[in-house]
Amino acid sequence: MIALITGATSGIGKASAEIFAKHGYNLIITGRRNERLHALAEELISAYNINVHTLCFDIRKLDEVKTNIASLPIEFKQIDVLLNNAGLASGLSTIQDGDTNDWEKMIDTNVKGLLYITREVSQLMITNKKGHIINIGSIAGKEVYANGNVYCATKHAVDALNKAMRIDLLPHQIRVSAINPGMVETEFSIVRFHGDEERAKKVYEGLQPLTPQDIAETVFWVASRPAHVNINDIIIMPTVQANSTTTLRK
Ligand code: NDP
Ligand code: 8X3
Fold first, then answer.
1. How many domains would you assign to the chain?
2. pTM of the full predicted structure?
3. What is the mean predicted confidence (pLDDT) over 132-158?
4. C-alpha of residue 180 to centroid of ligand 2, in Å
């Protein structure tokens, strides 16, 4: 079995690579930080005796997505699971003060990047007559919160695409699922606050957030249901978070 995981250099993607490897999957792992991809590949190959192929590219660039997927060795083209995980929030501000560079980054990564890779990989899945696409959405795709405007819009787009893909791929019996987490402690907030680690730390202060492993276990559970079962959509939150803005802090 083969899983392609986008954004495997950190957080949820990295934890998902580890759990699929532990269950004997061969992996294609992607991201822009090549050193991290190679370090993870080495670690997983030696721990689990699997095959790992690394693809270092920017998911926002259609030509890079196309070239990298086309470059896969034939045995790696038999992809069983595509985990659409690469994504980010950039900034947290009102519409009137929003930085348009942040907007472009989020729209290009979370929506267009996800579309580019899905187009290429779903074509392989159709040829192979098998496949499962798992989209990482967010609670931000189910609700909106102050200053979250564009990030929330991109994750609402993922929510819509999750439903749309399921319709388009139904004749090919390719499963499509989404997992929508609340707060998970990863590099997410550091990226959102443009590298400000102190500000990022405050997001999780006084509460127990989800771990990347909590989400990875859910991803693997979704992927390992029997072939006739599709999990359409899951929202998974820390017990101390009722919705985007209501949390219980010590
Ligand atoms: P991290 O910042 O820890 O990981 C994000 C991953 O996405 C990295 O591996 C990064 O790789 C990759 N990525 C980002 N931009 C690009 C790009 N242009 N091209 C290729 N890869 C890219 O955050 P998380 O693990 O938390 O985020 C994973 C997903 O989970 C995202 O879609 C996020 O929106 C979603 N999510 C996160 C939540 C949270 O609270 N953490 C809650 C709900 C959803 P690299 O930098 O090497 O390119
Ligand atoms: C990440 C969680 O609440 O910052 O998708 O939008 S949140």
1. 1
2. 0.99
3. 99
4. 9
